[in-house]
Design goal:
Helix content: 40-55%
Shape: globular
Distance between the termini: 39 Å
Strand order of the largest sheet: 10-5-3-2-1-11-12-13
Length: 332
């Protein structure tokens, strides 16, 4: 099985005459290798939030801009089968819904491969697959929606369910006038429509996951509605995980009867997937790329962001890109 250091050595071997490593060439070689093994279209959707925590979250999250990227990389693909490799912290559920609608209209069979983390809205997208591929090192995340709110402590992402639970607690405790003064500072931050927003966000999250599971993953099951309902409630339950960042391992997803193929069941397939993933993480570490959407034919939409300090072999935004690449630059 290829490991991180082996791909780094491969990248190092591509350096010559002071030039940077061929990050794009190595990554694309392994994407093509995965296609040659499966004969299924391959799209990589990955962001570098783990390597670049200082980058604004909007640049590494699932957003409506990603639709342009998927339109770019689906152009020219033949056949109706897709392997989607996804590594993402999540983002907008509305954008996730648009991406799923687009991909499911284009491909009849979608297999989602999670090489490490598909969190939040990325988990929602994973639930629109016909089958999930997870390794021992793969994790999904809770789908309970988070509301980004201005508070006295600054802007915070707050679980919608936590807001509802706290409001219910406040109603109970404020029956005692002696406790009212302690609650007033928090209640003053509750806008006129916040509770309704929370309830709507929770309902939308559950509805999307339930509908996608019923329509795709469990489409051939007699009990598809019940299975989809149970999983959507489980994934969206803030009380089940206590933290939106909680990592859900493969065995828990299997216990809830999600349709999963183990990555380790095919050694060649596992090697190809992990080679793509390690080459991608090296790209994030060694260049300005913060998000990569790319197919096995070399067509790519690469989001870039300039940082105060980068390695000496960084890819300059002015450098000519390989044919079929779209570079999106966001500069400080």
């Amino acid at each position: 099985m290829p490991i991180w250091s082996e791909i780094l050595n491969e990248l190092s071997s591509t350096q010559a005459n002071g030039n940077p490593p061929d990050f794009d060439g190595v990554r694309r070689k392994h994407l093509a290798g995965l296609y040659n093994h499966t004969k299924r279209n391959v799209i990589l959707y990955a962001s570098g939030w783990l390597q670049k925590s200082e980058v604004p979250p909007s640049l590494v999250s699932i957003s409506d801009e990603d639709m342009q990227a998927f339109m770019e990389v689906t152009n020219g693909l033949q056949g109706d089968e897709l392997d989607l490799i996804i590594h993402s912290p999540g983002g907008s559920p509305e954008a996730a819904e648009a991406i799923v609608s687009y991909l499911r209209a284009r491909f009849n069979h979608v297999r989602v491969i999670v090489p490490q983390l598909a969190m939040s809205a990325a988990t929602m997208i994973s639930c629109a697959a016909d089958i999930l591929v997870l390794g021992k090192h793969s994790f999904l995340g809770p789908t309970d929606p988070q509301l980004v709110l201005p508070t006295s402590l600054g802007v915070r992402a707050v679980p919608a369910q936590a807001i509802l639970d706290q409001f219910d607690l406040a109603k109970h405790e404020c029956a005692d006038p002696a406790k009212l003064s302690a609650w007033l500072p928090m209640l003053n931050q509750v806008g006129p429509d916040l509770i309704v927003q929370c309830e709507s966000a929770l309902e939308m999250s559950k509805d999307l996951v339930r509908t996608w599971l019923e329509t795709y993953m469990f489409k051939d099951s007699d009990d598809r509605l019940a299975r989809a309902q149970e999983i959507s409630e489980w994934l969206s339950g803030h009380q089940n995980f206590k933290s939106h960042s909680r990592h859900i391992p493969r065995n828990e997803a299997e216990e809830h009867a999600m349709r999963i193929t183990r990555l380790e069941s095919d050694d060649i397939f596992q090697d190809a997937v992990l080679s793509v993933f390690h080459a991608t993480t090296h790209t994030f570490s060694g260049t300005r790329a913060v998000k990569i959407v790319e197919n096995h034919m070399g067509r790519a939409f690469i989001k870039q962001h300039s940082l105060p300090q980068m390695p000496s072999f960084q890819l300059d935004i002015g450098q000519a890109a390989p044919e079929g690449t779209v570079l999106e630059a966001d500069l400080l």
